[in-house]
Amino acid sequence: MFKTIIEPFRIKSVEPLHMTTTAERRQKIEEAHHNVFLLRSDDVLIDLLTDSGTGAMSTEQWAAIMRGDESYAGSPSFYRFEKAVIDLMGFPCVIPTHQGRAAERILFAVMCRQGDVVLNNTHFDTTRANVEFTGATAIDLPCPESRDLASMYPFKGNMDLAGLRQAFATYGRERIPLVMMTLTNNSGGGQPASLHNIREVAQICREQRTPFYIDACRIAENAYFIKQREAEHKSKSVKTIVAEICSLADGCTMSAKKDGLANIGGFLATRDKEVARQEKDLLILTEGFPTYGGLAGRDLDAIAQGLKEVVEEDYLHYRIVSTGYLGEHLTANGVPILQPPGGHAIYLDAARFAPHLGPLDLPGIALTVALYVTGGLRAVEIGTAMFGHRDPKTGDEHPGPKELVRLAIPRRVYTQSHIDYVIEVVTEVHRRRAELRPYRFVEQAPFLRHFTGRYRPQ
Ligand SMILES: *Cc1c(COP(=O)(O)O)cnc(C)c1O
Fold this sequence. Notes:
The chain is α/β, with parallel strands linked by helices.
């Protein structure tokens, strides 16, 4: 009836933001060698670096924290956690881990051998690293529609089905220990996959007798997009859609720092008891006993409550609409973004934003620096600094596949006026885009160089 979408919560505890002047921010970013990862978060006004573990917990989650039981083995917190995962996803074997990448490390250590090939719509960076650490190769099969950043195709997170069939023909199923789908597709712009596409992938895997796993970090957001965009599912609840997705899979990995609505935690889950047994053996080696897996009992309780809240449709409506609001207003102001808006983030298209800069001029770094200096925003470059590389022999720089800058929205943290402010700042930087200068690395690590790299403007 009313067109204003309000935050479906009110605020009980507030955290002051630290205001700074442009001159102060210019000095801070120089001290940080023009790398926003090296800023102190106190010096950031609106922090859109990541939506991972940065969300606000609810009163019920804080109450759950107090209920947490810190027994080493067999804690009631574990049983509440296990029940919450089974109620939502239906996988019978549930193994807690300290975050998503620990679940990935254990899953791939159990499933992969040297020379194997793992297929995914798009591997997240930690997923790819954990696959490759086992000696297997990680291959991305994004759908062809995802290549055009400006198109409004509703399911750009889909897997390329012809590519999947072709991969089975090329490598043979003996070399493919599992196929995975990342929902939503984080590295592909937070774009969802359709239930139709997920079903087709599951069917191909069944024909090939190959396990099908889900990277479930944002499965509630993906399910909400399915409800909105795939007509035949519009009358189903999000919880039902999540259950339906999981019913097609053999298991999942999960970072509870995303759709677990918690600040830390993760899990892996499977239907295969023998796989679960091997996973638990590895878990004990580095994470801990299988009823806590590197987490405190209170974390398990916070996640159990978070998994109930994340499928509430008022919450998801607000979440997806507020991210979309940012994307639509930026688009209306002429700012080029990856379309359509994703679930957890808006990705600025830095190549079109600053067409006077080539990939080796690090346009995304120029843009993140300008967003910080202009308005105290912290965003993250997802371009040549993150995914390009320097040839260790020749010293030549090689560009990454795309030049993006991600504005990730922490869950339940910022209000509409904060987002209106973000729109103003980005629009102002865009108006003055001709002033963006080329950047170069002055120092870089041999891997994951974007975290610690130092830059200077040319
Ligand atoms: C964050 C993330 C992970 C890794 O989870 P961590 O909790 O950060 O270790 C894996 N896959 C996707 C899609 C993610 O977004």
